[in-house]
């Protein structure tokens, strides 16, 4: 707890005390109200190297842990699985669903991802409300969000099922796209769509050769206009993705914040900024913009934004509980070291080991 005392002016007998509660990250632990029964297994599609790990994990969950395993129908219908007679009995016990048709959000206790970071992003997109705990195994090209190694999956899964694990609450963005249909069809009302985003919202100029020109509002006040290739609004989780490539700082996922990063701004002084979680950002086309812009959400659902449309962004009340392999500090810095080789350089030799001790420049 941090205590802040505000003293009154002279002659006024008042004392205000504000108490700020800061949660200890170490207190974020996985706790099951009841034993998990239904587990969703997400497998990276079109990667034959994941077929055997997928079969091994499903067999372990069904036969040894007596769990109900949910998978996508296209995964269960994979030709490689259907041809494997030894896996037939397990395959027949899998519960299948189709994205966009079947709602499984209320029946899943645990999510296990096999692949790269894209598998966790996809799992997040399946749950537009509350998200079950996610355990991600690193079997893809990037591993910022996938801390577990599959070699020890039996031990690690058993620990998670017992509730023995730390949790990182990865904040998401709630994004509303409001389409002004009045300008296109006078008798139509405005259309609004809402989506939950784990990494970032990207607004870009699309195929146009002109710079994008959009206005950025913060809690209803115009902050600035962005002229350039576009702008990225990201979570701390997304700070190591597109935002990092655009020059933003990397923020630990436990920091409550929203990042705004310009993409190739036509201004030398436009630096990325960090604003408090919970504020509402709004992006609209500037009145004098020469062209429309495009928006995408975690690289999906790309759509065009025209004059009169607006994008409203704020912190979602539904984070993604990501299960840690070790703890939320070690896992994050380990991912920076392994994926980005953060702060890797050749070390200086000790002065006693160099021939000329007076040379301290190299």
UniProtKB/TrEMBL annotation:
Enzyme class: transferase
SUPFAM superfamilies found in the cross-reference section: NAD kinase/diacylglycerol kinase-like
Transmembrane segments: none
Name the record gives this protein: NAD(+) kinase
Keywords from the named record: Kinase, NAD, NADP, Transferase
Family: Belongs to the NAD kinase family.
Lineage: Eukaryota, Metazoa, Chordata, Craniata, Vertebrata
Originating species: Cyprinodon variegatus (Sheepshead minnow)
GO terms for MF: NAD+ kinase activity
EC number, as in UniProt: 2.7.1.23
Pfam families: NAD_kinase (PF01513), NAD_kinase_C (PF20143)
Protein's GO biological process: NAD+ metabolic process; NADP+ biosynthetic process
Cross-referenced InterPro entries: ATP-NAD_kinase_N, ATP-NAD_kinase_PpnK-typ_C, NAD/diacylglycerol_kinase_sf, NADK
